[in-house]
Structure formats: C-alpha cells, structure tokens
Amino acid sequence: MRIGVPKEIKTHEYRAGLTPASVRELVHHGHDVLVQAGVGLGIGCDDGQYAAAGARIVPDADHVFAEAEMVVKVKEPQPDECRRLRKGQVLFTYLHLAPDPAQTHALLESGCTAIAYETITDAQGRLPLLAPMSEVAGRMAVQVGAVSLEKSQGGRGVLLGGVPGVAPGRVVVLGGGVVGTHAAKMAVGLGADVTVLDRSLPRLRELDDLFGGRVRLLYASLDAVEQTALAADLVIGAVLVPGAAAPKLLTRGQVARMQPGSVVVDVAIDQGGCFETSHATTHANPTYVVDGVVHYCVANMPGAVARTSTWALNNATLPFALALADKGWQQACRDDVHLRRGLNVHAGRITCAPVGQSLALPSVAPEDVLT
User: Fold this and answer.
1) Of the listed 31, 96, 182, 295, which one is catalytic?
2) 122 in catalytic set
3) What pLDDT score was predicted for residue 242?
4) Of 299, 328, 361, which closes a domain?
5) Which of 198, 233, 270, 336 does the annotation list as catalytic?
C-alpha cells in the first residue's frame, strides 16, 4: 500500500503522523511510504532520518494526497486538506466530528473512508489511541493552569503548591478518566489541594486506592460540581463521551460566580467543551477571559510537546496502521471489531452513530458498508 504523511498545517501543530521508526516498520512490511519534506522538523527529525528509514521524500502535500492510498495524520484535516481527499482514499487520524459539522460535510463530500483514532476501542472498552494524548493533556492541564493563575496572565496570583504558612491552591478535576487521573497526579505532585469528581462509584473507589487519601473524591452531583467549582482556583474539564459532544458541566451563570482570576482548562474542547463559556483557542492565543475567569481551551494541547506526543501516539497507532496497510481497510475492519468502531465516514455516509446523533444526521452501522 502507498501510505502518505503530510505535514500538519493546523496552527502551532508540530506533531507528525509517523515517526521514522514507524516508517521503518511499514517499509519492512512491504509498503511504500511517502513523507512530505519537513514533516518531522517539529519533533526533531529531519528528512534524512525518514529517508534512512525507507521513506520517499516528496516536496509538498499535493504529492502526498495525490499518490497515497492511505493518509496518516495527527489532527483533523483542515479545509484545504479535505478538498484534496478523494473517493476510495483512506484517512487515518483524529477527527472529533461531533462538534464539527463543517469538517463532517467536507469528508462526506470527498467520498473518502475516514477512520478516527478517538473512537477505536479495546477489549476493556477503553480508547487506546486517545489514551496517550489524554495522558499528555491531563499532565499539561495542570502545567498550563498553574501558569494561567499567575497575575501577569490574568489569574488570581496563586501558587498551586503554596508555601509554609500559606494554603495551597485548590484544584478541581471534573472527570476521573485518563485525563483526570493524570491531571490529579500532577496537581498532587505540585502540592495542591485536589478534588476529583466523577459519576462512577467504581472509578472513585479505584482512584481512592490509587491516591491513598491524598485526593478528595466526590460523586459528581450537580450540587457538588457547582460548590467545588465556585471555591476553586483551577478547574479542569476532563470528561469524554466517545464520539459524541461533551456534556456542559458548568453554565455561563456558574462561571460568572467563580472567583475572579480563577482558571478553567477545558481539555474536552476537541469534543465541543464541557463549559458553556468555552470556545476553541490555539497555542498562538491560548486564553481569553469571561466574567473575570481565565479560559484555556487549546484544541491541540499535546502539540506543544510534539516530540513526546508523537512518540506516545505512534506507540498506539502503529499496530492499527500496519493492519490497515497489510490487509486493506475493509478486511482489517472485518477482522477487528475495535478498529471497526473507528470507522466514522465512508463513501458519503456517516458510519458512527454518536456522530450522527450529535449532528442530527443519518448514519449507518459500520457492518453495513463492509458487506
């Protein structure tokens, strides 16, 4: 199979769809890998390293999209990239279609087959291709939240760890999944006063065993979410409904009642955000203020630590990329129900029910397009 890796063009996105090591694996399996010149500069890999791994270096994205049977990316295709996609071509990347009708319609019109990292599952019902970026984003959420709390950034001027004689900052994490767990680990490590809220009692018990009493754990009732958020210095939104839009956990009115200079970090912004006042930002302009509350809503947080993120992502995506290339997308999806759940769009039809429901568009089961 001819596999193409274009350079990411989203604002301040430095990750790469494949590392040289992943290219070597694909070439070893007999595949032809086309890499756009400069694709790895953001992760510290030059064209020579890709060429040494067996890739063909092509000058621009036009060559990649024109020749590739499967395009491997990191972020969702931008409008210019959507226009280059064609019928019969496979796109393998993050999509996050539920809050993005424009991208969804563009993919439908292209006729391509789009397989989304974020809806592929594993035997435990987890999201293995989302997990590594969730780990990165969870850890980053505390890091960027701590900076945003600085007075020069518009924050309250609170040091999360405090100092002897001064109370530490209060961090509230909404959601105890992968993002929330890693955010809590970082916040605890800084010495903050940490509260995690979740609606799953089994998950709260797991977190209790993990943190050994160092974190306050609460059931995420409406009242508990409101009361903890109003008293917090930093609130991290870490909820996810696979394939669907994120639920709104704080209303505009509740945000307005938060402490002036407090910070919200909305890690769920890729799926529409979990605060009513959230809208996507970029690394170029990461924050804005609503009713005195600093909002950090960057839609590609892990792109800021591109080297770490790219290697972590490739560790998870490579086995699926190999299956798609070795077997062809149809047979690979027939053989693996978990990969099949990643199929979001095929030949002008939505094949992921949560996406269709979120956008009020008709959808078909993936099995229907594989027969």
Assistant:
1) 96
2) no
3) 77
4) 299
5) 270
Kindly provide the b/e burial profile for residues 298-334, where b requires at least 16 CB atoms within 10 angstroms of the residue's own CB. Answer: bbbbbbbbbbbbbbbbbebbbebbbbbbebebbebbb
Q: In this structure, is residue 235 part of a structural domain?
A: yes
pLDDT tens-digit series, residues 117-153: 999 999 998 999 999 999 999 999 999 999 999 999 9
**Same structural domain, 185 and 267:** yes
Which of helix, strand or coil describes residue 263? strand
Q: Which residues of the chain have pLDDT under 70?
A: none
CB atoms within 10 A of CB 199: 13
8 Å CB contact between 333 and 343: yes
* φ, ψ of residue 105 in degrees (nearest 5): -65, -35
d(CA 194, CA 204): 14
Residue type, position 77, single letter? P
- Other beta carbons within 10 angstroms of residue 178's beta carbon come to 20
pTM comes to 0.88
- Greatest extent of the chain over all pairs of C-alpha atoms, in Å: 68
Q: Which amino acid is at 250?
A: L
Among 277, 299, 321, the domain-final residue is 299
Active site includes 96?
A: yes
Render pLDDT for 311-355 as a digit per residue (tens, 0 to 9): 999 999 999 999 999 999 999 999 999 999 999 999 999 999 999
Q: Could you tell me if 54 and 351 are in contact, meaning their C-beta atoms sit under 8 angstroms apart?
A: no
- 129, 314 in Cβ contact below 8 A? no
How far CA 124 is from CA of 91, 96, 240, 335, 351, in Å, comes to 25, 22, 16, 17, 22
Same domain, 289 and 349: no
Give CA–CA dist 283/6, Å, rounded. 21
324 with 115: CB under 8 angstroms? yes
Joined tokens for residue 158: 């609170």
- Rounded Cα–Cα distance for residues 29 and 205 (Å): 44
